[in-house]
Design brief:
Shape: globular
Number of helices: 22
Distance between the termini: 77 Å
Number of strands: 20
Helix content: 25-40%
Largest sheet: 6 strands, parallel
Length: 567
């Protein structure tokens, strides 16, 4: 192969892995790579973002949407530290992602050179680290090897982020090393004996419940899960912020098991005599702070299926552990023959009825977010991608939007299980740039939006189209204010926000924008935004007392004072 700079060889390696878009913030430490993007601009594009945290969030969203590692490039030191929030999100969300970090030249290492960091220490791979693996390429001829290993590591077992460090001088060295072929992860199937044990546990159950989610799903796997649930009449809940794993319109859907869970579904999780946890880690949010399913030995019988062996038995002593890729596990479960009569059909019907009833809510004036979300659901196309960051505002989205399931439109929910604020806007920009024909709706709180709102400029600069950002403005960090009122009623400190004119701000970025003052005005404003085909921001003002989809600050404060009075 003709020798070329290692920076060019790196871009060629990405193209060989099917990458057509990379996100990042340019830096002098990897100029040779940027030149490689220019050399191959007809086959791959580099999206220059406005801050590394936004770029890393975009790459994480890319990983969720495509199932292949999202790609992010940042420079050394400040660039890497800014990007770490996206790496942490990818780790907790089990999203395949590769962060490429420019590094100081090899002859300057270990002198605390300009912006120098030890990235193996910083991103510390391990059970509670930020990345699955951190590598540094010292030899240009080995660069394709490192890139292939990064893709394998990001995809194998429990998917996650990898950090690959690129010394500046290495990137300018000439190499004739050939690129390596497309990486395809090895997948695992459940053992036949384990499947017989699953069937035995199902036949012994009276009130079973499936909780599905996590990464690694594809359309075929999601369809196999649906057929398995239908064969056995099993109610299915989706884990925290993985609501698009199972079709929310299906009569066996029980709701989402996460923050703001339907109290009746929470009771159902506790009352189940068998839980089949499929593809999920059974983390704090899905288990209600480890109360719905108590460690180390749950009251319910537990079957835990996960692709990563390190997750099995890590927290819960389950009755049956199966290491298997989720798609393969679902296809294997589909093959299990159910008996003609099942004793839990009424249990499954009641779970669906509880889910349907959870869509009813008392009217709230002047801005009713329940009606807003139902309107978005009714008017937006079925393949719309929804994004959000962190904050109480997201509870309305999770409660009232019904996702159609991966088998119909692929991934349509982009939300951080890590609870990272600022995720929603960059994720929406990435989705719009990756799939310009699809509508993307971002729901953001006022505090959440301003953490990465500058990425509106990225959307404008790269021609994003059918992208709508709905900013819910209540003038406070709502989640913190809620906890504050619960613990220290009436003693507000540090949770008030002082916001700009969001409409003027969006217009300054070249977006369409409108202020929506009441519920009745939302539908025409949203319909106009959809019809325009242009990036649009809708600014909704919400009473700060309306803190979640289930309660108000006034009620929380009253309960706290009553509790303190009886303490």
């Amino acid at each position: 192969m003709t020798p070329r700079p290692a920076g060019h060889a790196l871009v060629e390696a990405l193209i060989a892995q099917g990458v057509h878009t990379a996100f990042g913030v340019p830096g002098e430490s990897y100029l040779a790579v940027l030149d490689g993007f220019h050399e191959h601009r007809e086959r791959i594009r580099f999206i220059a973002c406005r801050q590394e945290g936004g770029a890393a969030f975009m790459a994480e969203a890319q990983g969720k949407l495509t199932g292949r590692p999202g790609i992010c490039f940042v420079t050394r030191g400040p660039g890497a530290t800014n990007a770490s929030i996206g790496v942490h999100t990818a780790f907790q969300d089990s999203t395949p992602m590769i962060l490429f970090v420019g590094q100081v030249a090899s002859d300057q290492r270990d002198r605390e050179a300009f912006q120098e960091l030890d990235y193996r220490q910083m991103f510390g791979p391990g059970t509670l680290g930020l990345a699955k693996w951190v590598g540094e390429v010292q030899d240009a001829d080995r660069l394709p090897e490192y890139v292939a290993r990064a893709f394998h590591t990001a995809l194998q077992g429990r998917p996650g982020p990898v950090v690959l460090v690129l010394p500046e001088d290495m990137l300018t060295q000439l190499t004739a090393a050939p690129v390596l072929p497309l990486v395809k992860p090895a997948t695992a199937w459940p053992a036949p004996g384990a499947l017989r044990d699953v069937r035995r546990l199902l036949l012994e159950a009276k009130q079973p419940l499936v909780i599905a989610g996590g990464s690694g799903w594809d359309a075929e796997g999601a369809m196999a899960l649906q057929r398995f649930a239908e064969n056995w009449a099993l109610p299915v809940g989706c884990a925290f912020r993985f609501q698009d794993t199972f079709d929310n319109r299906h009569p066996l859907y029980a709701g989402d098991v996460g923050i703001g869970i339907n109290p009746k579904l929470a009771a159902r999780v506790r009352d189940a005599d068998l839980i089949l946890a499929l593809g999920i880690r059974l983390g704090e949010m899905t288990t209600g702070g480890y109360t719905l399913i108590q460690p180390p030995r749950p009251r319910q019988k537990l079957i835990h299926v996960h692709a990563g062996p390190e997750e099995l038995g890590r927290v819960y002593a389950a009755d049956l552990l199966l290491q298997a890729s989720v798609g393969n596990a679902a296809r294997a479960l589909e093959s299990l023959t159910a008996p003609p009569e099942l004793p839990w059909r009424a249990w499954a019907d009641a779970a669906q009825a509880d889910y349907q009833a959870n869509h009813d809510a008392p009217a709230v004036a002047p801005m009713d977010l329940a009606v807003v979300m139902k309107t978005v659901q009714r008017l937006a196309p079925a393949d719309t991608v929804y994004t959000n960051g962190a904050g109480n505002y997201s509870g309305w989205l999770h409660r009232y939007v019904r996702y159609h399931g991966l088998q119909h439109h692929g991934r349509t929910q982009l939300a951080p299980t890590s609870g990272a604020m600022g995720y929603g806007v960059p994720a929406a920009v990435a989705a719009s740039l990756l799939y310009p024909e699809r509508t993307v709706v971002n729901i953001a709180g006022d505090g959440d939006f301003l953490m990465t709102g500058q990425e509106l400029a990225t959307a404008t600069g790269y021609g994003a189209g059918r992208l709508i950002s709905i900013v819910v403005d209540n003038g406070t960090y709502g989640t913190i204010r809620m906890h504050q009122e619960r613990e220290y009623p009436g003693r507000v400190s540090g949770s008030d926000l002082f916001n700009p004119d969001f409409v003027a701000l969006a217009q300054a970025y070249g977006w369409r924008a409108a202020r929506v003052n009441d519920t009745a005005a939302f539908e025409p404003a949203f319909a106009e935004a959809l019809a325009s085909g242009q990036p649009t921001l809708l600014h909704l003002k919400l009473d700060p007392d309306v803190i979640t989809s289930r309660t108000t600050l006034g009620a929380i404060r009253a309960q706290a004072r009553q509790r303190q009075g009886t303490a």
